[in-house]
Amino acid sequence: MAFLLITFLLCSSSLYLLFLLRNSQFSRRKLGLPPGNLGLPFIGETLQLISAYKTENPEPFIDARVTRFGNLFTTHVFGEPTVFSADSEANRFILQNEGKLFECSYPSSISNLLGKHSLLLMKGNLHKRMHSLTMSFANSTIIRENLFVDIDRLVRLNLDSWTGRVFLQDEAKKITFELTVKQLMSFDPGEWTESLRKEYLLLIDGFFTLPLPFFFTTYGRAIKARTKVAEALGMIVRKRRKEIVEGDEGKKKDMLGALLEGDGGFSDEEIVDFLLALLVAGYETTSTIMTLAVKFLTETPLALAQLKEEHDEIRARKQDSETLEWSDYKSMPFTQCVVNETLRVANIISGVFRRAMTDVNLKGYTIPKGWKNNVGATASPGNLFSPFGGGPRLCPGYELARVEISVFLHHLLTRLSWVPAEEDKLVFFPTTRTLKRYPINVQRRIKSLSHR
Ligand code: HEM
């Protein structure tokens, strides 16, 4: 017993010494790291970070350290020493050197849900090729020529079914899911898409929970749902492959068609992972911005009135036509300001993580090989606002998201009026969202306006 006690005391004191050494100014300077604090052993400053994200303003963690240490600072969060950057120049350098000096880095609990062939996890030349393929499926020309009609139609279809009290966050998610399924594999909403969506909701929950893989945990249920979603997508891939071989494919110009008919020779598993990750990437982000735009507008009547004016003018020009066209989207300057401001205030992706592939010199400091970097996307005195990231991993959906949100706002504003059904609150942990899914009571606007 005495032996055990002595061993325990020796171990804890040496760990504590190690911690002191690690944390001392001396060792930090010797390593050439940016200034900062590694916090407590093992947990570092994770608790401070989490409690900051639980407040109404999520940035006190970064702001306080930027004020104290400058735009580059060292900390220790989620089990790893990490250098945070709120410096535009350093951020550009990190993002542009993707695959050379830095690479993206996700914990295995996230990779298991995404699938190893997802764009977010790909590296090197394959990533380059697939990133540009994804970009080519969501660029302005493709949106204008192919996707816009469906975005307009599916948004109207959804809004026309709203009556009384609706949970805006849930409805916005339904819309973005249906739009993505249509874009990826040309399916219109129906029973199949709805049952896929139910499994998919369980899968998404897995991203924001502790990764305990038991059947009764949220993460365990998410892994199970992932298998079901992958099976459902796999069936569609096999069916389309067969149709192509038999020559009765009916020329569907969607992402699945491009993956099957391009010269990549992808396996079913690769295609399924790729599609699944695209469904994940655009879903939570776009629908949250839709919801928060409405919340912020409701709380800012002047901006709401100005936005209404912009959209009523478009509607008045269109006389009997219910549909929107690309040229209408291009005449929504104030809407774009609303989207930008929502992205800025909502702080939906406050930063992205990278890992140093070698010792890197960054603005006179050294980032040791294997260390994590958090590239801040939030606007601050030293940082440009970059909600869609940058470099080779720039969000391929940046234009598509804008179009979807703008079309949504147009039809919402011209068809419906709403009031919040309850007080709701913006929270930033574990993700940016409203606490009660933003319940609103909706009413049709007078017929003469909405159906002109
Ligand atoms: C408001 C909505 C959106 C926001 C704020 C957003 C933000 C971002 C950010 C910051 C990144 C960079 C991640 C990194 O550097 O590690 C990213 C990547 C990505 N986004 Fe988006 N996104 C949005 C909508 C969409 C949509 C609609 C799609 C659908 C096509 C999409 C697909 C992706 C994909 C596939 C990646 C991974 C790119 C890669 O790793 O090469 N996003 N997004």
What does this entry look like structurally?
This protein has helices at 2-23, 25-31, 46-53, 60-69, 88-96, 108-114, 124-136, 140-160, 168-185, 191-205, 218-246, 255-261, 268-298, 301-317, 326-329, 333-346, 398-415, 447-450, and strands at 72-77, 80-85, 102-104, 164-167, 351-356, 360-362, 365-367, 372-376, 416-420, 426-427, 433-434, 439-444. The protein has a 5-stranded mixed beta sheet with strand order 1-2-8-5-3. The protein is globular, with a radius of gyration of 24 Å. The chain contains 18 helices and 12 strands. The protein binds protoporphyrin IX containing FE (HEM). Protoporphyrin IX containing FE (HEM) binds at residues 104, 119-120, 131, 134, 138, 278, 281-282, 285-286, 289, 348-349, 352, 377, 387-389, 393, 395-397, 400-401. Protoporphyrin IX containing FE binds next to helix 7, helix 13 and helix 17.
Task: Name the descriptors.
single chain; 452 residues; alpha+beta; Cytochrome p450; 2 domains; five-stranded mixed sheet; three-stranded antiparallel sheet; 18 helices; binds protoporphyrin IX containing FE
Topology:
Layout: H1 2-23, H2 25-31, H3 46-53, H4 60-69, E1 72-77, E2 80-85, H5 88-96, E3 102-104, H6 108-114, H7 124-136, H8 140-160, E4 164-167, H9 168-185, H10 191-205, H11 218-246, H12 255-261, H13 268-298, H14 301-317, H15 326-329, H16 333-346, E5 351-356, E6 360-362, E7 365-367, E8 372-376, H17 398-415, E9 416-420, E10 426-427, E11 433-434, E12 439-444, H18 447-450
Parallel strand pairs: 2-8
Antiparallel strand pairs: 1-2, 3-5, 4-12, 5-8, 6-7, 9-12, 10-11
Bound molecules: protoporphyrin IX containing FE (HEM).
